[in-house]
Write a structure and sequence with these properties.
Shape: elongated
Largest sheet: 10 strands, mixed
Order of helices and strands: EHHHEEEEEEEEHEEHEHEEHHH
Number of strands: 14
């Protein structure tokens, strides 16, 4: 098993380049950057002599547990992606940590970050999760990061809901590509609470196939500069924002008119009394229930109605009074025309 120890650091090329100028304790005390990536390291030993360490590279190793880093109170960047880590713990002493890279591990819950009040970036992409499971978030951790976190990377984690992340109002960069997000309304609701969001990537999610997906997100995220790897044209965004504002105003006005009774809808079939062809209309004008069968007239009544309708349609001889002078003019015209 390969352990990261003081001796391993002492044997590194950087120490041997400076051994003539510094003793080992003095060198370790002045050390600020330490790179032991891709060294098959499985465990971290006591490194308390490196008190001024600010950047630690431990990615692409075989580390299964974060430990023995409590001494690094000055650490600002920690790179531990592509290891075998299953839990986030033992980081409470890293008060100045601003960037944490834990992608490509086997972490199922984002937790244990309650004391990291200076954390600006959190990278959790591509966790090796059990089949059917998704990356979860501890509400206490989210609450503690609400006022500091600006960059969140949760690509490829089977995530289907981001409503728990609404509290992260300081986000400027959000990466959630290749997940299972599909509810457009929930996404709009969450993103409308992130006024400082500049860059976002949701490519590879089912929601990307929704009607007007891009237009709707641009209108909701008014400060967004890039969506799914494509820049947002300022003129296009302003047009979409104005269009949505106009549409919402018209809808609001229409709703107000309906509520106040200013808009009425005409009745297409209005009758002062019971309709003769309706078998359900059995109430007379006095509001009393008519006897059974009142809805449809009897055969005799229908026959009488039919006879009246036929008589009304027959042509009739109508007598029109005409003066003698008019008749004389008509006779003269007829002679001229040869009639």
């Amino acid at each position: 098993m390969v352990r990261l120890t003081m001796d391993l650091i002492a044997k590194s090329s950087n120490h041997f380049k400076n051994k003539r100028s510094y003793s080992l304790p003095k060198y370790l005390k002045k050390l600020t950057h330490l790179n032991f990536s891709n060294r098959n390291i499985e465990d971290i030993d006591d490194l308390s002599m490196c008190r001024n360490l600010t950047v630690l590279y431990l990615y692409d190793n075989q580390i299964s547990q974060i430990c023995n880093l409590g001494f690094a109170s000055n650490l600002t960047h920690l790179y531990m992606q592509n290891n075998n880590i299953t839990h986030i713990d033992n980081l409470s002493g890293l008060q100045k940590l601003s960037k944490l890279y834990l992608g490509g591990n086997s972490i199922t819950v984002v937790e244990g970050l309650e004391e990291l009040g200076e954390l600006k970036e959190l990278h959790m992409e591509g966790q090796r999760l059990p089949s059917g499971e998704k990356l979860l978030f501890d509400p206490r951790t989210l609450l503690s990061l609400a006022e500091s976190l600006g960059v969140l990377n949760i690509n490829k984690n089977n995530i289907d809901d981001v409503r728990d992340l609404t509290i992260l109002k300081k986000l400027t960069h959000f990466f959630a590509a290749d997940n299972q997000l599909q509810d457009m309304q929930d996404i709009e609701l969450v993103f409308s609470q992130w006024p400082q969001l500049h860059r976002m990537d949701l490519s590879g999610n089912p929601v990307c196939h929704k009607l007007k997906y891009r237009d709707r997100l641009i209108t909701v995220c008014k400060s967004l500069n890039e969506l799914d790897g494509k820049e947002i044209n300022e003129l296009s965004r302003q047009f979409l924002i104005n269009w949505k504002a106009s549409k919402d105003a018209k809808k609001k006005l229409k709703d107000e008119r309906i509520m106040t009774g200013q808009i009425t809808y005409p009745f297409t079939d209005f009758h002062m009394g019971p309709h003769p062809s309706s078998k359900y209309n059995c109430t007379n004008v006095l509001g009393k229930r008519n006897p059974p069968g009142c809805g449809r007239p009897s055969r005799k009544v229908r026959s009488e109605h039919s006879q009246l309708d036929s008589a009304a349609m027959r042509p009739r001889n109508v007598k029109i009074p005409v003066s003698a002078g008019l008749l004389s003019d008509v006779a003269d015209n007829a002679k001229v025309c040869g009639l």
